[in-house]
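hey so i finaly got around to running the thing on CARDB protein from Halohasta litchfieldiae. pasting the sequence first so u can double check i didnt mess up the copy paste, my clipboard has been acting weird all day
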Amino acid sequence: MRRTYIVVMTAVVVVALGGITYLSTGQQPAVDVGDVDSDGESESNGAVDRESTEPAYDQRTATEPAFAFSVADVERCGSTCREVTATVTNSGNETATDVRASTSLYAGENSTDSEARIWEETETIGTLESGASSTTTERIELSFGDAATIQENDGWITIQTTVESAEHTTTFQRTRQVI
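ok and heres what it spat out for the 3d tokens, dont ask me to read them lol
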């Protein structure tokens, strides 16, 4: 019985990690098991994607978003681990300084309470000229306890990435049911 529980929890974590790839431009569903083919195409097993939102405006100036964000690749690094490669692009007309990207994974549908946060990371990018991009790979590891928290929230996760600079702040958010 205990072994079955561990196998189920491992599956929950793997599916939750796959949901992190939600920010892939909105043209395809998030990867449910964390796999991206060599040609960049993802495979999905039907996870529910609700209330996904692209950034509607720059939060500091109420103008069009100054940044774009996409996930390029997801590689397995263990049963509860994924290495996610993502790109931030300065889509504004001016140089952005002091750029940093913060991503948080929350257990729960449309939940961004700090108590629901199960993973977070901030990447310092620096300066991005207009049209320039920065690509980075982050290792995302969740514990079995984190997976249990997702399960307690009916399998829903909320992923939020905020790209902030001295000039602009743009937030990308998507909620997915991964189990």
